[in-house]
User: Fold these one by one.
Assistant:
Number 1:
Amino acid sequence: MNVSIFLIGTELVRGIIQDKHTMFLTSKLTSMGYAVRRCVIIPDDGSVKEEIERAVPDSDVILLTGGLGPTSDDITREVVASLAGVPLEKNTQVWNRLYDKIGDRIYGANEVQTLFPKGFTVIDNPLGTAAGFSGFLKRDRAEADGGGVLIFCMPGPPREMQPMFINTVEPALADYIGRNNTGTDEYSVFLLAEARLEDLCRQVKLVNGLDGVSWGTRFQDCKISLYVNGENAGERRLFAEKLRAIAGKGLIADGCTEAVQILVNTLREKNYLVSTAESATSGLLAKLLTDIPGSSAWYWGGVNSYSADAKIKMLSVNEKEIKEHGMVTLECAKEMAEGVLRISGADLGVSITGIAGPSGEEEGKPLGTVCIGCASVKKNGEGASSDGADCEAVMVKMSHHTRESGRRRFAVIALILANFYLLGVPLIDIVSTWNYI
Amino acid sequence: MNVSIFLIGTELVRGIIQDKHTMFLTSKLTSMGYAVRRCVIIPDDGSVKEEIERAVPDSDVILLTGGLGPTSDDITREVVASLAGVPLEKNTQVWNRLYDKIGDRIYGANEVQTLFPKGFTVIDNPLGTAAGFSGFLKRDRAEADGGGVLIFCMPGPPREMQPMFINTVEPALADYIGRNNTGTDEYSVFLLAEARLEDLCRQVKLVNGLDGVSWGTRFQDCKISLYVNGENAGERRLFAEKLRAIAGKGLIADGCTEAVQILVNTLREKNYLVSTAESATSGLLAKLLTDIPGSSAWYWGGVNSYSADAKIKMLSVNEKEIKEHGMVTLECAKEMAEGVLRISGADLGVSITGIAGPSGEEEGKPLGTVCIGCASVKKNGEGASSDGADCEAVMVKMSHHTRESGRRRFAVIALILANFYLLGVPLIDIVSTWNYI
């Protein structure tokens, strides 16, 4: 089964953006048993029709991304209709869904996004305004009654294309090539680097002789989605179990979830409000906790105590302590968590103070060092402070990262640890198992 | 001048290695004034000849990487010789250099790497065993005496290809195209939806008869990059000027920048520290202000006063006022900005309180309504409060958005307005020009 891939986007051939589709698509196609004949990157200049026509004779499947936007250079839908020899027609369901999303703006340039080649199947795109579609291009009259080249058209942005591929196109392609008897389990992996996760997966497969298991990953902002494939559900589960054991506690969650969602679930169960005190991440933890609609049910508010002055004035962190030992200490993390708990009167206070870089390392505290504090009046453990609140803090040292990925991972560490704190698990028992972050 | 690029490598179309050539080559070609018609990634399966043949009629230049190795599937040199209608012949200089490098091993498979199409120019490769070469492919008999398609063949590994391109191919291509006579200006567009920007661009082109101007856009998290193309620099400038006039004040910035960078530049010029008080965006503004390294030079810290209780306890916002008029009011935005200014002692306080959705609309305040407040003791305008701080607040109503894009746009609005506030421009004079956000 031969596949031709067409990536349409002027930015791609002007050196403005990096192509993220080729490797993603070709690795998945290869693992399903397809042979990629060519991957062609072309501008939005109208040449797409001629380019696809050339590929029709020697392709069984064509994948196409981009050119589904609302602008005049987005001609994919017309070109595919023309190649299929059918007119474009309005899809009422898509029109209604788009109207719900963008309102009266639909009467402008976006309306073209509700048109699809007649007889084609529409593929929903919950993350954008461009739905995808699939159908057959006839190679000659002999194929008029069925068959031809199966074509899938998907939006260009990776954050829309990748979920569409995984949820709809990949299962359809597996079916088309006759590999429909394999199963896939999804996991959400936190804090591990993608290359490290790949190494661990290989190790688990090799050591446990799990030859029937394969995997794919998808990197996102705050997690990696891990898809474990294989015919035998028991083998897939064993693979995940072994992987979880060596990766570290709390780093691999079942299904498609986020670290913030896991904490929010616990907060909702207990009917708790959380407050935050952030230094290195300065607002990122608060933003994550309020990305989800309805967040006033679990988020009280908090402070971004970025400067030393902010820590002292807003959280009453001990000035002498900061001067003597710096701001990335267990003591500072504790005082921040206790401080915000005191101000807020919330049920849980969470603090983050760390060194995201690119500069600012201290002796014994390389870039990537972070201290997390958790405080609550609802617990009365050993660490209870004078005003009756329990408080715990731990230090974590992460390996290589950028300022951006470092800050994101600091926030994820805080989310994971805050959840364990609420569940009564000592934080040190968790972070001591994190050898690979 | 049209360019076709061919990247040969089975690993590239099996998802094993990431293509690093496309972006590198296309950005350099674009800046020289070449138009990339296509970039084709193909396996080492012998299909290269057919693929190149297709590109000869519509290309002025062909760049090819890979397939120059010593193994039997490395057929680039034979294919190019065949397309040029010349035999392969041994290059003695290359043979001698390679012998110096690998000794008697040259009598094995590597010997083929000393053969080149007759009449072609050899390009030295100090970093590997595969030298490159360049020459002309004739399109027809009329070109027999000169001209044709200029082709460059380079090795596949980026560490060998990139220096070869920079040292030899790029200067030759710059020479070949002569003077670059088309230009591109880049702008950064804030708050407008992509489809809306497209509509406005079309309108400006049509109304002003700017037929020589075209444009491209690239959507990013907090802005759209707009590229204005055309041979005439005056026409390009006029297009941008007219677009700026109808889009609204402060929404189109020169060059590649971000709203946060514009505010940070002003803060650094004045040597000011900013503090933030956020409700709807809860930490996003603080995060943006600290994404850039060195942010302790301009960011003091701030509060995420998400709940009413947080606004009252942390910022002393008037409880009665909230109960009577809600939290999305000019008064509340003012009190938040003044409150955080008072706590921090910073030079500027910025507040955001709005309705991001998906629910929570109030009468006269649809989803997308936001109030922004700015306060400073360094100004003494009419709005000066009892404790000597100047304070200004405005309300903005945005059209359709999601929770995520709404929160992002609220933060961008605050960044743009805070900058105008520091420049002494009344905020109402700015937002009254925003008809399209």
Note: The domain at 259-431 of chain A is CATH 3.90.950.20 (Maf protein).
Number 2:
Amino acid sequence: MTALISDPKSASVAADVRRALEQRPATGDRLDEIARYALLSPGKLLRPLLLVASAEAVGGAREDVLPAALAVEYLHVASLVHDDIIDGDDLRRGRASVHARYGVADAIVTGDALILGLFGAVADCAAPDAAVVAAVRVLAQAGEDLCRGQVQEALLVPPGPGVPGSGLDAYLEMASLKTGALFRGACRAGALLGGGSAAQADVVTAFAEHAGLAFQMYDDLLPFLADPAVTGKPGTSDAANLRPTYPVLLAHREGTAAERRGVERALSGELRAEAAYETLREVLVSGGALELAVAGAREEAARATADLGVLPVTGAAGLLAAIADLAVNRDH
Amino acid sequence: MTALISDPKSASVAADVRRALEQRPATGDRLDEIARYALLSPGKLLRPLLLVASAEAVGGAREDVLPAALAVEYLHVASLVHDDIIDGDDLRRGRASVHARYGVADAIVTGDALILGLFGAVADCAAPDAAVVAAVRVLAQAGEDLCRGQVQEALLVPPGPGVPGSGLDAYLEMASLKTGALFRGACRAGALLGGGSAAQADVVTAFAEHAGLAFQMYDDLLPFLADPAVTGKPGTSDAANLRPTYPVLLAHREGTAAERRGVERALSGELRAEAAYETLREVLVSGGALELAVAGAREEAARATADLGVLPVTGAAGLLAAIADLAVNRDH
């Protein structure tokens, strides 16, 4: 999402967030070193951007909510660190994942420390105590929803030979929890800490609901669009884990009998990861499901921006709209 | 710690905490099922007891802080769930550990959800927002210290042949982080949520500092005192993980040359777990280090109770003293 960072407004927010991440007080011990490694990898800082833009869109000041912007990045990075352990992914953003570099034990504990630290960070915001308590509640709930989505994800049955699988609807419900939750939490916490009304908080929450789903839908497409060297993770990871993702489930639902069989074969566990990936890619590209999936993600992004016009600060509301737009127009 | 539960005051607190744990709103999904399994195992509920007793000792009402009492149990249980994964312990409190029963992936995620949920629970306390924010900060810091202790623990070098090891002081520093942190967090958060003054919060924090260390010191002795069928975990676990614990390090520092060699041999990795454990037990019992270690733990517990007399509610302060006393007079 280099395009996003070249937008002057988002670039300035991202620079502030990155500076704050780099300037976290160092304790110099091993936990600190590992947390730094995890946090300072070249990520998109999308969730901090969402939090700051939501706060500014309701009239809040960036510097007052910056600690909470770090907090949502802690939560996101913690979930990535633990996810990589669970999936056995040794690469993340083009370099060794935390457990590949520091071992599983310390990777588990570092993720825990980031989750704990996020609430300390929220408490550091310059906002009334009532708003801080509300934000704590929102982010705890968002995190729990994220966890619920992760557990649900593992329960989704791939459409195997003769097995219909859990289907697209169950998948999208899971994605709404797994990715949507933190988008919602970031935007809602931002609006509350920024002094927004309940109605304004609801507007950014609805935005986040759709934007999060759009982001996840498009994220699922990327392995079939982009070069793994660019995305920084192997395109075959989901296929290797036999994960039925959005475009794959769409192809299975909308495709011809032959395409359906191709999907089932790819997710059956009989093929090696590379062959499974190539089979899926062939079905998705030639059958047209990939194109359909892109259109679906962009419709969801358009839904996200529908009500942003009611927010008082149009520049920041425009940044939210730009984020939704760029979420479904990126190459990594 | 059956003796603790037979004390009428602590039994009544424990019953309230257990009822609140059982009455958590059920979502009925898999994450909920796993969290219930983890939380409802027959633990001592020591940290909730500490939180409630600290709140009551400064004049607070039990029902107002009960959600925070659950919160510290969430944090403790989350750390046990993740610890068991790290140590490969398939037994906990006499039954299958969470990862042994539900798999590593869901055990990691359930621990995360408990850590997140704890902050939602703190926000549910009937206390002024400022006290809730202060308690959030205290518990986030306590959790981070616990994580720091876990990472430090893995770095402690066992005293091997020709290697002095990290020694007793480094071990006790780690124990103060790993176990002491959550004792401190529970007591301090309880005093703050119970409406205590800063000075009163400092008194219970100092109590917790010593009581936590005493508890960990005595916990380290238990595998050499008690029957594994009673403690609910194999007595050989620390020996199998080549962990130099308090009595072992004491024997190494205070023992004869032969005893020192025995310890080094047991922790060298050359013996099978059972043989290593038996070697350590023999050294500790016959050399007198076990007796010395018991005395050390009890001195630490006595230090804990020294200043409790200044707290206004003597019944609850007495419960704190009883907890410290029973922490070093138990058989499991």
Note: The beta strands of chain B are 91-92, 95-96.
